[in-house]
Amino acid sequence: AQTVTQSQPEMSVQEAETVTLSCTYDTSESDYYLFWYKQPPSRQMILVIRQEAYKQQNATENRFSVNFQKAAKSFSLKISDSQLGDAAMYFCAYRSLKAAGNKLTFGGGTRVLVKP
Amino acid sequence: DSGVTQTPKHLITATGQRVTLRCSPRSGDLSVYWYQQSLDQGLQFLIQYYNGEERAKGNILERFSAQQFPDLHSELNLSSLELGDSALYFCASSVGGTGNQPQHFGDGTRLSIL
Predict the structure, then answer these.
(1) Euclidean distance between CA atoms A109 and A92, whole angstroms
(2) Up-side HSE of residue B39: CA atoms within 13 Å toward CB?
(3) How far, in Å, CA of A58 to CA of B36, rounded?
(4) Rounded Cα gap, residues B29 and A53, in angstroms
(5) A101, B97: Cβ pair inside 8 Å?
(6) How confident is the model at residue B97, as a pLDDT?
(7) Residues A66-83: what's their mean pLDDT?
(8) Which of A54, B46, B64, B89 has the greatest number of CB atoms lying within 10 Å of its CB?
(9) Residue A103: its chain B contacts at CB < 8 A?
(10) pLDDT tens-digit series, residues B26-36
């Protein structure tokens, strides 16, 4: 079974600075998808960014970008020019292409604090 | 607004009781997923339905059951409730049952067992 590990329970960043969140995963599969979800205090789960494992190019969405290292099974999220609204829990998630269905396997989350 | 509607937002009940959580997926989405978020277990996948049929099952207890109706809304039934069932229950939906379509989450139902 796949597992997803987020080793940083909490990260603090100054407004306008950059913060990088770590995520590692364990899988024997070669094709899969990876996601980062944001959960603000309102508790919604908001998709931030996604990466297909077969794509070498790292995904980017505005101030959010990933560093996908397939061989190392690492999928970090970089938040640039941090804003107060970025304060939230961030979850890394894995989705298999082989398993039946479309379930997401989540990491334990990293809380991001943004200091003004 | 994700377009996924979950009701109720909050539910408070006692041990041994039974509750039903409801989810309406985004318009056009055929797949519905249920997840449980608790302090102990984190975010866990429970079950997925696609166009009325069960597609995948996760760590769902035997006391829990779900179904997806012809109008594609889904219900998660929790029975013989225990204190440990207190959690945030999310419903998510996607267009298909597999592939790279993202899952869109509802706001969740907060279940508190007293």
Answers:
(1) 7
(2) 5
(3) 30
(4) 24
(5) yes
(6) 67
(7) 97
(8) B89
(9) 33, 45, 48, 56, 58
(10) 999 999 999 99
Asked if residue B16 has pLDDT above 70, the reply is yes
* SS3 of residue B84 by DSSP: helix
- Nearest residue of B to residue A90 by CA position? B43
Q: For B44-97, what is each residue's pLDDT tens digit?
A: 999 999 999 999 999 899 999 999 999 999 999 999 999 999 999 999 999 876
User: Is residue A41 less than 8 Å (CB to CB) from chain B?
Assistant: no
Contacts of A16 (CB under 8 A, 6+ apart): A81, A82
pLDDT of A98 strictly over 90 = no
Of B29, B74, B26, B65, the C-alpha closest to B46 is: B65
**Cis bond leading into B8, ω under 30°?**
yes
Token readout for B19 is 């509750």
pLDDT above 80: residue A101? no
User: Mean pLDDT throughout A61-79?
Assistant: 96
Q: Which of B43, B44, B94 to mutate to test the interface with A (most CBs of A within 10 A)?
A: B43
Q: Which two tokens stand for residue A14?
A: 């100054």
A3-115 has CATH 3.20.20.210 classification: no
* Domain boundaries, given as residue ranges, for chain A: 3-115
Report the gap between the CA of B25 and the closest CA in chain A (Å).
15
Would you call B31 an interface residue with chain A, using a CB distance cutoff of 8 Å? yes
Nearest Cα of chain A lies from the Cα of B113 at a distance, in angstroms, of 19
Question: What span, in angstroms and rounded, lies between the C-alpha atoms of A40 and A65?
Answer: 19
Residues of A in Cβ contact (< 8 Å) with B96: 102
